[in-house]
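Figure S7 source data.
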Amino acid sequence: MRRPLWIKHAAQLVTVGGSKGPRTGADMSELGLIEDGSVWIEDGEIKAVGTTSELEARFGEWEEEADVYEATGRLVTPGLIDPHTHFVYGGSREKEFEMRLEGASYMDIMNAGGGIHATTRMTREATEEELYRQAELRLNSFLRHGVTTVEGKSGYGMELETELKQLGVMKQLNEQHPVDVVSTFMGAHAVPQEFKGREDEFVGLIIDEMIPAVAAEKLAVFNDVFCEVGVYTPEQSRRILEAGKRHGLKPKIHADEIEPYGGAELAAEVGAISAEHLLKASDKGIRRMAEAGVIACLLPATALYLREEAARGREMIDAGVPVTISTDCNPGSSPTTSMPLVMNLACIAMRMTPAEALVAATINAACAIGVQDKAGSIEPGKQADLVIWNVRNYQELQYLFGVNHVHAVWKKGRKVV
Ligand code: NIG
Ligand code: FE
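Tokens for the predicted fe (iii) ion complex:
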């Protein structure tokens, strides 16, 4: 048995405890704050949470047996969760960044064979070991930014072999790296160049060949599709998502990112766990998502990087949509691993409050990838995934922006940063 761990005297302990499902409306501001907070951890699991004096009364006599960590003067939060990334890929696309600054659009570059197609070529060429090494470095960076659970998508293969290679790397990293990785199959990330003009044929391949193979090998929990003008139509997206459901893969959808296309409405219709991006989601789509309880996964770093107006986060929360936020870490539209930056941007660009940004990046993110029973909050029975920050309170975390305030990180009770 490992020695117990006692983190004590946190200036502020943000627990975000007490919810079974995603938080909406005013509940998105409920942080479950404890001043002078303490957490008692045994075998990687949270056993007790309270003020330091409460825990001294309960565990004081075992103090000698425990590893004690003083968080005096600092903020403690749950490990952050990134519910939407494309972190396993080959190569890099800094040239496209320059091209976009000179005026080329994201879709123009993709339609000319760059963008997702360029990364697909580089990912097909990379060996599994190369992909693993690159992705491992990105997970290390996530961890240093306080992120202890990450969702990852395939979709830079768009042929069975490479899709399985990407998902295989995620599976290995989940087993070998401290960060928990939750996998999503995204064969419908673009229409591969060799299928140009034969889109429906490729949709058929995804439905008849790829989804059954991925599900049979239990390599993914979710099934995602890029529903966008010039990529997959809402009708094709629906077929792909329904096929995934028949094989036990829960639907997610990249919706209304570049143009309004009914993606938010489709997310509600197919019962998607979340809809992503939503920069151009319609009022009706937002209403439908609120009614159906679809989580809006908003990506303000992507909007900034594409120099677009951010999604209507404030309005979505006010309309009762559960909101989460994510880096969208990928080599084209958001090459970052910084969830703290994303929280800052959620406040600045979407007028979310500091408390809402933290709820969005913890318990709501956990719900968006189905890990809320073990992560996303500091409460008894959950994994001891915790971050100590070099700030005194949660407002300061969002106020001092663009800076990495991480002081220390625990994953399942082990100190990893
Ligand atoms: O979520 N929108 C589609 N897919 C990614 C971008 C992938 C890339 O550019 O490589 C996204 O932004
Ligand atoms: Fe994405």
